[in-house]
Amino acid sequence: MQHANMKTLSPLRTFTNRLMLVSLVAFTFLISCRDERCDCMQENVCVSVSNASGRIANSTAILQERGEKIVSGQLSPNEKICLSFKSSGENAFRVIAVFIPNDTIISSEVYSEGGYKFVATLKDSVVDVKQHTGY
Q1: In three state form, how does the secondary structure of the chain look?
Q2: pLDDT in tens, 3-43
Q3: Cis peptide, bond prior to residue 101, ω within 30 of zero
Q4: Virtual torsion, Cα 89, 85, 61, 78, nearest 10 deg
Q5: What are φ and ψ of residue 61, in 5° steps?
Q6: Do the beta carbons of residue 109 and residue 86 sit within 8 Å?
Q7: Which of 29, 39, 65, 107 could lock onto 127 through a cystine, CB 3.0 to 4.6 A?
């Protein structure tokens, strides 16, 4: 027996809710995919980050010159992650890694445009970022 105030969802509403959930999961996967490949759409800047420091990075992030920040969770030694962001023109970014215990390394500012791909390597005391043209 249904409660008088309970409404059943129409099939269209249920489909719309499922579609939104699938879209959210797909978007999250595109923003942060734990894979060696960094598949990049033309208007995105993609950064493949690998941890060669021998230490656990508590968090890894990209800080764009326009103030937007893309943050990833923990990155173990020898692990790789792909971070991407939309850039419909000229932009710049820095890669930031915070290690346990509270040791932060930051790359120099890197010029980018939509479609550019980069490889960032977390080392003991620096972040080395190089432009990469093919995967």
Answers
A1: CCCCCCCCCCHHHHHHHHHHHHHHHHHHHHHEECCCCCCCCCCEEEEEEEECCCCCEEEEEEEECCCCEEEECCECCCCEEEEEEECCCCEEEEEEEEECCCEEEECCCEEECCCCEEEEEECCCCEEEEEECCC
A2: 555 555 566 566 555 555 544 444 444 444 444 456 666 78
A3: yes
A4: -120
A5: -145, 160
A6: no
A7: 107
Place of tokens 């059943």: 8
Tokens standing for residue 52: 């060669």
The neighbour count for residue 115, using CB atoms within 10 Å, is 13
Which residues make Cβ contacts (< 8 Å) with residue 36, sequence separation at least 6?
48, 80
Please indicate, yes or no, whether the overall pTM of this predicted structure exceeds 0.90: no
